[in-house]
Design brief:
Shape: globular
Strand order of the largest sheet: 3-2-4-1-5-6-7
Distance between the termini: 67 Å
Keywords: GTP-binding, Hydrolase, Nucleotide-binding
Helix content: 40-55%
Family: Belongs to the GPN-loop GTPase family.
Strand content: 5-15%
Number of helices: 16
Subunit structure: Heterodimers with GPN1 or GPN3. Binds to RNA polymerase II (RNAPII).
GO molecular function, one term: GTP binding
Number of strands: 7
Function: Small GTPase required for proper localization of RNA polymerase II and III (RNAPII and RNAPIII). May act at an RNAP assembly step prior to nuclear import.
Structural class: alpha/beta
Radius of gyration: 21 Å
């Protein structure tokens, strides 16, 4: 349609360490979104990702392959992956040409799992920055909704050029790290470093909730970890370990840094649980403004609830704790004495 208004593209940039469940998340979320009636395009930005379980609309493997780079340049898997992302950064015209025909779709970007790309290497941040120069603006959600009313009609969307996007970065980490205080502090530091390096808001997920106590029992209730409450209690647990006792001052400084920023929080996720996926999608939609669009003809009540962020986190977290965590055999008094 000539003269049609430019369309707004929404989506998610799925990031996280290797094995955290990014590809499985893209599969489950794409199926869930299609059940809602959204047109989904999954974009694989991981050149090391082979045997994709989902229908891939764009695959970076068509541009550059990790195996070819390792053989040609005599690089290891880490160096080869960094080179691949730098190569993609230098050839973003290829990605833009692939995305432009997918106007009207909801995007899921399956990003590489190398931690360096999100903590201090500049390639991934530069890719999103250059996308913003195309007027494909990137947003990473952290529960602060973008109050944007979408006034375009669906028929105009199908023919308008894609000139604006609202993406939410979804950062996945394994939930079983909560069972180890030292690993949980490491996860907090990595999540915070990722948020600061990418320089955009952020949504953190505790993935594989069904395995949260697979490697050990949690020392506190689930909301302690999702809301990142008083971390001094973790220091007391670490002090009971002879190894970490010598590093108490270092751990205190790390905990103080995390609490001073007060940015990190988590949403529990079990990708096989539809209620869990819906809870994550609600947070993502609130972050990138999709919940204020006309695509799904939301009622005024639903829009107002999303606008004020109305959600009972305590009750939902309590339900998840009863569902996935084994009940404690100790009384409250016994637990207090143990602390």
């Amino acid at each position: 349609m000539a003269g049609a208004a430019p369309t707004t593209a929404f989506g998610q940039a799925v990031i996280g360490p290797p094995g955290s469940g990014k590809t499985t998340y893209c599969l489950g979320m794409s199926e869930f979104l299609r059940a809602l009636g959204r047109r989904v395009a999954v974009v694989n930005l991981d050149p090391a990702n082979e045997g994709l379980p989902y229908e891939c609309a764009v695959d970076v493997g068509e541009l550059v392959g990790l195996g070819d780079v390792m053989d040609a340049l005599q690089l290891g898997p880490n160096g080869g992956l960094l080179y691949c992302m730098e190569y993609l950064e230098a050839n973003l015209d290829w990605l833009r040409a692939k995305l432009d025909p997918l106007r009207g779709h909801y995007f899921l970007f399956d990003c590489p799992g190398q931690v360096e790309l999100c903590t201090h290497h500049g390639a991934l941040r530069s890719i999103f920055s250059q996308m913003a120069q195309w007027d494909l603006r990137v947003r990473l959600g952290m529960g602060r909704p973008i109050l944007q009313m979408e006034e375009l009609r669906e028929e105009n969307r199908c023919h308008a050029p894609m000139s604006h996007s609202e993406l939410t970065a979804v950062h996945l980490v394994d939930s079983h790290y909560c069972a180890d205080p030292a690993k949980f502090i490491s996860v907090l530091c990595t999540s915070l470093a990722t948020m600061l390096h990418v320089e955009l808001p952020h949504v953190n997920l505790l993935s594989k909730m069904d395995l949260i106590e697979h490697y050990g029992k949690l020392a506190f209730n689930l909301d302690y970890y999702t809301e990142v409450l008083d971390l001094s209690y973790l220091l007391d647990h670490l002090a009971s370990d002879p190894f970490f006792r010598h590093y108490r001052q270092l751990n205190e400084k790390l905990v103080q840094l995390i609490e001073d920023y007060s940015l990190v929080s988590f949403i529990p996720l079990n990708i096989q649980d539809k209620e869990s996926i819906q809870r994550v999608l609600k947070a993502v939609d609130k972050a990138n403004g999709y919940c204020f669009g006309v695509q799904e003809q939301r009622s005024l009540e639903a829009v107002m609830s999303a606008a004020v962020g109305a959600d009972f986190h305590f009750s939902s977290t309590l339900g998840l704790q009863e569902k996935y965590l084994a009940p404690s055999e100790q009384s409250v008094e016994q637990e207090a004495m143990q602390l």
